[in-house]
Amino acid sequence: MNTKIKQTIALFFTVMLLFVLVLPPLSAAADASPIKIGYYEDGDYMSKSQSGEYSGYNIEYLQKISKQSGLPFEMVDIASWNAAYDMLVKGEIDLLPAVYHSEQRAEEIFFSGQPMCSIYTTLNVRMNDPRYDYEDFKAFQGMNVGIIRGGVDGERFKSFCREHNLVLNIIDYDETSVLLEALDNGTLDGVAITHLGKNSTFRSVAQFSPSPLYFAVTKTNPELLSEINKAMNNILLANPGYSRDLYDKYLAPSVNQKPVFTKEELQYIKQAAPILVSYDPSFASLTYQSKKSGQITGVTADIFEFIAKNSGLRFEFEAHNQTEALQLLQQGKISALALSDGDYLWDGRNNINSTLYYLRAPTSMITRYNSDKLEVIALPQGYQLSEAIKAANPHYTFKYYPSIEDCLNAVLHNKADAACTNTHVAGAYLSRSAYQGMRTITLAQPINEMCVGLSASGDPKLFSIINKCIQYLPTEQVDAYLVTHSANTKEVSMLEFIEQHLWQVGCIVILVLSIIILLIGSNLRNALHSNRRIQDLLYKDELTGLYNMNGFYQKWEENNTPSKQQSFVVLYNCFWKKKEENNTPKKQQSFVLLYSDICQFKFINDNFGFATGDQVLQASGKILQEILEDDEFCGRISSDHFALLLKYNCWEHLDKRMQNFVKKLNCWLKAKTDIPYKIDFVFGVCLIEKNATIDLHQKLDLANYSRRYAKDTPGSFIVLYDEKMRAQALLAQQLESRLDQALQENEFVVYYQPKVSMKDGSIIGSEALIRWNHPDKGFLMPGVFIPIFEKNGMVKKVDLWLFEEVCKTMRTWSEKGYPLFPVSCNFSRLHFQQSDFPARICEIADRWNVPHHLLELEITESVLLEESTTIAEVFQILKEMQFKIAIDDFGSGYSSLGQLQQLTADVLKLDRSFVSHGVAGMREKIVVGNVIHMAGELGMQVICEGVETQAQSITLQEIGCKYSQGFYFYRPMQLENYEKLLVADN
């Protein structure tokens, strides 16, 4: 009796102590009040969507500060900047972003220690107003110009006017939106305001007074200023270019904005002869020589085409290696380098005046796969990147070659151990068959910044014109150039092509010979018929009757040639001009380009035959033709891929059209075939404007890119191309290129999550989980990189590395006398497609003397449906080797206990959805309880995942589950902590 009383008293005081320890932080958290942020509509700096979401440069910077400092922010909507500033001075709000510094304001408010960005003031006019050229001060006289009342940018504009003797009618406005509306409707001739950002619909004719913008803090809250400064310092220490990244995202020029030139520059353009530019013909994919035309091609060639189109300049190109080009530039025999990468010291030595950079890229080191030797590095002459690499690595021997191709050949023939260039050039060359035995490693430094190099002795107006064009070159446009030329630089010899496509080449040869024989034997009466047949072969898909890829492009060209448009205008004027004489022109019709894909089409061919697959394709083509409207067309690009050009009114309407198409196809499928399930499609979408200047090849590439994204994203149906896809692709590329180096440098870390008996909390085993301590991206969870490696097969390296690390650790535990419990490791389905997988697993375990029965091999339930026969055979071999088999995430898919009996698994891990969806009701308890009972009858140990509360643990024990794995007992932990737990538990 006394013992029970003592235990009760001890338990009571323990609970009270825990309550006292936990209560203060809860109270403190409850007392914390959010920081009030002043918000007013300010375009790309701050805006609010119809759904109430805030976005823009200022908002994203504030969110970053909130993450760094833990400060909670609350947006306060205010009518205007002046009103927001008054509230800040009075202490009615705590913080206001994007404030210019002045001595008067410094007496009223605090300013952050670091600027949030540096920006300039602009004089903007309407895009279609022809009265004003860039810095045309004579034309500016007498303008009606609006400014924000009391704003620093307005005062700076007044100083600008005094400096240039401008006499204007300056009008004050209180709100930015009202000011811009006045310019748009013609009330004002111009507005003087801080740079408007990426989505501006106006044209800048003057730029002046670059100045920093700060976060402003009320003087009633000095502690907040300290927190803001600390957070900004941490942000800039981690990423010194953070402000520049935000500038590129929100404020950099877009495709809608064009460069503006002075009258002197326009006169220069009008009178200038073609400008002679040198390019390196071996610097693919940036600059290289087309084998068909002998002309310059590549990303840089497209950029010069952009410059020519936006300026009116004309260019002529000559191919020289970079060393020769530098000499010709100094001699005045050429005017510019298509690609120059020097800093100011390099430019000074070579008489170069470099523009803004149009492309940045990391450096890649290229080595042979079969060699770890690194003593001699080959570098291309004439590039500042080569000099920077040499300066940073004085312990290596360097050899210079005329071109990067010569450098790679030197590595290939053992004359050098490595070559260095930027990642774009490295990727282009390593895609060629001649360099398949090489690998690339991405280096953190130096970063290669590429620009146009002009002669420092040349006319400064030429430099100014090209520099402005590059300033207005959108990043998404450069990305499109990179996408286009990344695929175009791969070279395949004729012999290699024939070996790879022997059957297709044979068919084509036979077809061509047949056509030749038919042409020779035909008479004049059949000439017209033969010509039509050739046209069909060239432009039509024989199976569906739709356009093929050539026909699709041809149809686009036919619909957009000037002659047809002009003919239409003539007919219009003849028949309808009088009728609609007083009507305003209609708004130009927008279009979308769709790239479609039939999901699991290979499954249809494999299970129902190619004839059924062809019927599905024919029906798809027929229904697509039925849904087309005027000026719309479609084609079959390849296999089960279709391309469509459709009118675009709104996203909902487009989605509904495609849903109706799939619905009609499935109705046909049910009536005409034996296929028992519905067919799903995915669509990638790219928005375009219908005019003759659109590059359809580029747009089709982008639509195909979003189609691949939709197919890789579960639940996706129709996806619009955007920057997110590009970012994900870049992340995947970075992680893929880093994997081998990460494995060598032990960047991966193994965590262990214990499995326990819920009765007494004792450990019965653990699961090994992988984390990636990435040097640049921080601590990455497996959900970030495992899906990427699953797609390209690299996951097999990661799985085997994890398994070997577990075996090493268990050998150490055995030597230290620690208790040994089973450890489970996850394996991808890709391993079970390889016949030597059991032997490799056995070899690793035996090498470290780990008993097989202490190693569990986990595979997810979803894989059972896809590869059940193959997996059953592999499971049988593993069981004979005494390994344990575990089925992970059971209940998340559609497998049955009958399949489990066939696969003879040892451990069944119930998916966390059993717990998260609740097992409190009687029906849920019956279902879960019967699953546990049946699995036990089949001889399997049942472990429930995702147990996070005591109530869940008690309920699961009541229905017969003994073991669990979840946060209620233990979170995944590092090796040292798990070893301490093993010792303590023992």
UniProtKB/TrEMBL annotation:
CDD domains assigned: EAL, GGDEF
Transmembrane segments: 502-524
Keyword Transmembrane: yes
Keyword Signal: no
Domain EAL span(s) in chain numbering: 732-986
Domain GGDEF: 589-723
Database matches in Pfam families: EAL, GGDEF, SBP_bac_3
Keywords: Membrane, Transmembrane, Transmembrane helix
GO molecular function: cyclic-guanylate-specific phosphodiesterase activity
InterPro entries: Cyclic-di-GMP_PDE-like, EAL_dom, EAL_sf, GGDEF_dom, Nucleotide_cyclase, Rev_trsase/Diguanyl_cyclase, Solute-binding_3/MltF_N
PANTHER family: CYCLIC DI-GMP PHOSPHODIESTERASE PDEF, SIGNALING PROTEIN YKOW
Official protein name in the record: EAL domain-containing protein
